[in-house]
Amino acid sequence: MSEGRRTPKSGALAVEPVPRLHPVIAVVFAALSIACGTPPADSSQLAYLREGVPAEDSLRSEQIGPTDLIASAWMIGGNERIIVISDLKPPYLHVLDASTGRHIKSLGAHGEGPGDFSDAPSLMRASFAGDTLWMLDGPRRRVTGFALAALASDTIAPRAATVQIDSVLPYTADGPSSTGLIVAMAQDRKDGLFPLRIHRGGQKTDVGRPREFADSRLTPRYMGNAYLGRLCYSPDRRVTVQTFTFAGRIDLLDSIGTMVGSMEVPYPFRPDPYMDTTSGKQIDFNPILPRVRWGYYDCAVTDGFLYALYDGRLNGANPPNPVPRSEVHIFDWTGRRVRTVVLDHSTTGISVPPGDSVLYSFAEDSGRFAVRRTRLRQR
Fold first, then answer.
1. C-alpha closest to that of 39 among 320, 291, 314
2. The whole model's pTM is what?
């Protein structure tokens, strides 16, 4: 499965040959129940949907910031001034100077008060373009914001602002737009996945129609588990990118959550549901089964491009599935993939500030995590 070189549009990044693969660091999903009689995995099928590239063809990164600060990284975001990492263990937020990597502060205790979190918050990275960094605390059904100037300061203590979300339990969100619109996605065992519009400063959450995936193998009860993923919102383009963790698929949604297009992913595949071998019926979707293939972990958007962090391997024991180096698919806003790059480390989180010159990620080393900075070569 190879891809030849294409001539990109004016101003686009040039295409490189399709490379090799990347990681599975901690991703927080509860194990789902599995019935007896699971058929044995065919080890010959434990293959990557990727092509290998020599190590010298990958992009080189540099470590910035402390190596003993982040316990278990969840998400990363940044702008020209600061980098923020959310952690699965408190304190849940760490702030670094983007130029030097100097640790500025850590904050966010475990609790229910203002500025506290129930777990690692999901960074709403579109808000880095404004004056307040917003983040989702799904279990608390609220969005919390801190002034970016206070996060970047050695002397100003950040004060939390909160927006409560009524009735529903979102698991991923991004925004806000200049009008205060936050886009989110929620999961329900009856309806599967459905989009949300949260109005910052208002009291109402608009619930959209459940997403339809034209996948008759799965009932709505299991659709939400199989099509979990992450949102990245581009306020300027008024489009939401939805990537999928267990599918080779990237959708484009409008501001009310209706699908308006998709990216031309190199390796499309659907989630693999668990089958009951005694009756042949779908009984569940379990992300840890050997046939489940990992798709897109994370995304980042700029004015010019969408960056999607891709895996492509099946679950299974080593050596068929060693932890790979990370692969990033880069698309223009017509949906065309214009470049693929491979990092020199494994990661499950990326961020690309405006300008498309640098990519931030994190990597695990000896049980701890550190931030990596990768210069994106323009060709």
1. 291
2. 0.85
